[in-house]
Amino acid sequence: xxxxxxxxxxxxxxxxxxxxxxxxxxxxxxxxxxxxxxxxxxxxxxxxxxxxxxxxxxxxxxxxxxxxxxxxxxxxxxxxxxxxxxxxxxxxxxxxxxxxxxxxxxxxxxxxxxxxxxxxxxxxxxxxxxxxxxxxxxxxxxxxxxxxxxxxxxxxxxxxxxxxxxxxxxxxxxxxxxxxxxxxxxxxxxxxxxxxxxxxxxxxxxxxxxxxxxxxxxxxxxxxxxxxxxxxxxxxxxxxxxxxxxxxxxxxxxxxxxxxxxxxxxxxxxxxxxxxxxxxxxxxxxxxxxxxxxxxxxxxxxxxxxxxxxxxxx
Amino acid sequence: xxxxxxxxxxxxxxxxxxxxxxxxxxxxxxxxxxxxxxxxxxxxxxxxxxxxxxxxxxxxxxxxxxxxxxxxxxxxxxxxxxxxxxxxxxxxxxxxxxxxxxxxxxxxxxxxxxxxxxxxxxxxxxxxxxxxxxxxxxxxxxxxxxxxxxxxxxxxxxxxxxxxxxxxxxxxxxxxxxxxxxxxxxxxxxxxxxxxxxxxxxxxxxxxxxxxxxxxxxxxxxxxxxxxxxxxxxxxxxxxxxxxxxxxxxxxxxxxxxxxxxxxxxxxxxxxxxxxxxxxxxxxxxxxxxxxxxxxxxxxxxxxx
Lengths: 314, 305
Fold this sequence. Notes:
The structure holds 2 protein chains of 2 kinds.
Chain A: H1 2-7, H2 9-28, H3 32-67, H4 74-77, H5 91-122, H6 128-140, H7 145-157, H8 167-191, H9 195-203, H10 208-237, H11 240-244, H12 266-275, H13 279-310
Helix pairs in contact in A: 3-13, 5-8, 5-10, 5-12, 7-8, 8-10, 9-10, 10-13, 12-13
Chain B: H1 9-46, H2 49-54, E1 58-59, E2 66-67, H3 70-101, H4 104-118, H5 122-141, H6 157-181, H7 185-193, H8 198-209, H9 211-227, H10 230-235, H11 253-260, H12 270-304
Helix pairs in contact in B: 1-12, 3-6, 3-9, 4-6, 5-6, 6-9, 7-8, 9-12, 11-12
């Protein structure tokens, strides 16, 4: 074969050219049906994406169209009112939400990061109890929020903890709700730190905790912070569990963490306005949604920026 | 000098402290189960299990009350069914588009937009469903008197269903896209080498290869749809009906819980206990779906990663 190839080089070139043209002809002559079907398929996919994005866009536009008339400073500074809807606002709800979120962070940051460190750095994954914890966290992340409301009602407000219908009870309920999110995100951040960092530190004589405190944790702060921000933004928008643990819808005074006269939260107040059919209250609900969406979008963009800015490539 | 079991008590104390944080999550689950079980048992002492599980009338406020849970289970399934009919094609279409068709630049704009959609509070989606989807989309487009007509009704299962569909589209799209992206390049290239068109590669190669992830995303989305509260409370109404008709006002399990267990309900009443019985049904339903979905996700991760 190799002996012949030198002599018959032109013939080989001819054969290659022939094969190429045959192949190209076959490819070009795809059945017309296939070409059309391909185009229709691509069109349908694009349509699906467009419908999803149109839904998002319509939601935002509708909130602005309905709520822009109520977007005044009164919205933030005034308490709710049924008698004067044009002067009504969200003041106690905003203060309530801020306190709820402060409580959530106070609980979720140490406990969530602590659990993540244990599972990533200490736990032996082959032990059944560690696997149980892991599966359990994955399941908890998908338990409906209203079930956390039931837990809050039967366990925190009444029952064993018996805190009563106070803001702190609502805060703890929300904290338990977003805890799995924080743990999962923090674990991913810790996992992204390469083992060589740990081994280097241990080789220099640092203990395991010193290694974690001075090497692993600082390197994973951006990832953990992103997870915490996303979890907190979920907690801000969560309504259903709060309805069960006493976020009463009509609070006209500024709530306190342990006051027993009731408290309110932003989404709960929006829900209450949304239930009233009058035009003014619908506008108030829409305006509240705008305020909440602006806050959430700002938080989420900050989280994404943080992730991109400080993410380490190892 | 290496010591295996050092006497550093601080180190060990820290380990136990961290472990107790992790154990707290197990305690949460235990607390959920315990909060549900006690009152649920109390409920079945008053209401026979037969009447609860096989009854189709849910009228707790009547005298005598009737607790046929099938009525509100049907309400939940009604909303979830119409929601999924919307979300599955839209979510899967988006996933295939993002993983197979979109240029990197388009991907970089669409993915964050879907993330924004995933982050919108459900109370906002519920408001959107009842004040826009219902009057501006369903009523004008619904074909006349079909199934009783949509005109003039303030609440519709379909409105809540479409709201929930919009809510779960990002879940289906992102998990399915992950699964499709995990399919090895070699499978694509092998199929193209055999002369398959782009659509054929997507439908006959990528789709089956990523099937466990796709099914997982759908199961998780159904679980979310079943557990969603605010959209249902705002858009689907509160009249329990044993029907899958989309143009009816219905009551879902979650909206029964949310509207009954508000601050002023007194402990010990049958109404109070019924909330926990319904909660148990909801918890078990979603738990089964979540476990299935987690297992499926693990399977595709094992096969391709």
